[in-house]
Amino acid sequence: MHGIAALQPYVIGLVLLWASLTKLFSARMRAEAGRTALARLAGPARAVPALRLAGALELVVAAALLLPPVLPVEGVAATALSTGFLAYLAYARLTVPESSCGCLGAHSRPIEGRSFARAGLLLAASVAAIWAGPYTGGVWAALVAAAEVLVLLGLSPELDRHWLMPLRRLVVRVRKPLAPGPQGEVPLEVTLRLLYRSRAYCSASARLVSDVQDVWDEDGMRFVVYAAREGLAVFAVPLADADPAGVRVALVGEPALA
Amino acid sequence: MTTRRQMLKSAVLGGGATVVAATALGSLGPEAAFGQAAPDIEPGAVDPNFAEGRIRSIKDNTLLVLGSNMVFHSIRVVDGTSLWKLGPVSFDQAKPGDGLYARGVRMPDGVLAAESVWLNIVNIKGHIRNITGDKLHLDHGGKEILCHRIPGKSVAIYSDSPPSADLSPLRVGQHVQILGAWRPDTNEVDIATVFSAH
Amino acid sequence: MARSRPTDPVDLLGPVQGEVSWFCCGAAWGPCGTVGKGACGTCNSGSLQHAWPNTSDACWAITRPDSCGVSLSRRTCGFSHRTTALCGGASVVTTIADCGPQTDLFCGERSCCGATCASNRLIDLTPAAYSRIASLSSGLRPCEISA
């Protein structure tokens, strides 16, 4: 147990160092500061200064944790900071639920359950760090600390693009969802997109006053009917051809339809 | 219907004599107003010829709609009105609870004579968070929207390439725009078109 | 891609061509229900309004049209633009009510109508405005924007 506690200052220290460097030096973080809950709480004008202040605080605590000597007061400071994180997340979730966390990097997703789990884990590690002594070795303690770091990384939405997204891409490549099924009828949207690209539609579109009224297929053509100022506009779109030049149009007066 | 379609077919294929370049309207009730130029509306102002909201009830050919801003609209649907719900549909597809946008002409009695009604239409942008089965999991402003591929309906447009029913080139992490039909009171959407820049 | 701030906005030299789409804002239903009233606090789906990629420094930092090689002038809330459909010539005048679209995420995308094409997403209209120049179900069209 003492070995595990002894490594907690380093685990917390590394996380805080990462958080502080992001807040202090990331241009993207500064650009997106306005979207964070901190900005919504402190006001847009104070968003960047507030982020920098939080980053500086984190840097001081991180340095104290990572550099010798190991003192209980460092664990107390980390505990206070982690409690502050949890309180900030809870308050932000309640008051500005749509804003992002601004914790460990720039991303636009609102605060989610993983952010709370990460802050909770940091708090537990910080409490353990109060009783930390010098690390004297021990494989199990090192393994626990490594697992802790991995869990903290896994609980960080900011890092999803580095591991979760590639993993999902791999799964998609293997499983091939969305693979095209058997060739059936040409979807209407394919016909309409071809229609939109045609000169025939372009020449008549200013006269159209509705969306598609009627559609049917006949003799290898798809007929598409719109209401027009003159009555109706009917387009004939070849089903087997992807060339918009094959689209034809006619304006038909309503009296002719009576 | 068949006779009407045959007439339209022969008109567009050049075999009929009923094709006219331009004729005056005047015989179809509310549609008579469709041809009139829309009155000038101040930029930034509410467009009186447009309505938004959810259908509360349907009475004869009129949709009673409660706008999201809590303003009631009566929207009259006539023969010439187009209805969209993942594609052109008939009037009986409009259900209470459906969201809608409608464009038409506001009549003196306050009723909107509809030219077009789009039911549950959404046009959302976001990152593809994951792809499973027939679904795209879209991260739309931090909220997950489940977007269903509907065989025979859903297509993808990869920049200016011809549209394709094959959605398999879409990739996790990609930013896309999805035009589709919302499934009322869920976070799910049926895909009409996916727009992808690549 | 150059990420430097452009000095010569193309829309100052004359009308600029690009892609137009639509977005919902204000009180709304479905996935739009939580979007709010936009960066200007005035946005409503039923009003003739639009989103512009350069309403402020913070807005520009998000939309980055310069990364697609397009520079656009700073226009703030309430400024009027005319959007004309390249297909058919229908137009609508709207005022700025939000920041957007995120031009950089669709760099190089192109929409065509007949032989006329336009690249890059430069403007998003409200449903009320978009449906005056095209059908909502079209989703994306080439257009010309002028002040």
From TrEMBL, chain A:
Keywords: Membrane, Transmembrane, Transmembrane helix
Membrane topology, as annotated: Multi-pass membrane protein
GO cellular component, one term: membrane
Subcellular location: Membrane
Domain of life the protein comes from: Bacteria
BP-aspect Gene Ontology terms: methylamine metabolic process
Keyword Transmembrane in record: yes
Domain Methylamine utilisation protein MauE: 4-131
Membrane-spanning residues: 6-26, 47-67, 73-94, 115-133, 139-159
Residue ranges that the Swiss-Prot or TrEMBL entry lists as coiled coil: none
Main localization category: membrane
A Pfam family of this chain: MauE
The protein, known as: Methylamine utilisation protein MauE domain-containing protein
Species per Swiss-Prot/TrEMBL record: Sphaerisporangium album
Taxonomic path: Bacteria, Bacillati, Actinomycetota, Actinomycetes, Streptosporangiales
UniProtKB/TrEMBL annotation, chain B:
UniProt-listed InterPro entries: TAT_signal
Tree of life domain: Bacteria
Protein name according to UniProt: Cell wall protein
From TrEMBL, chain C:
Top-rank taxon, per record: Bacteria
InterPro entries attached to this UniProt entry: RlpA-like_sf (IPR036908)
Protein name as catalogued: Uncharacterized protein
Annotated source species: Sphaerisporangium album
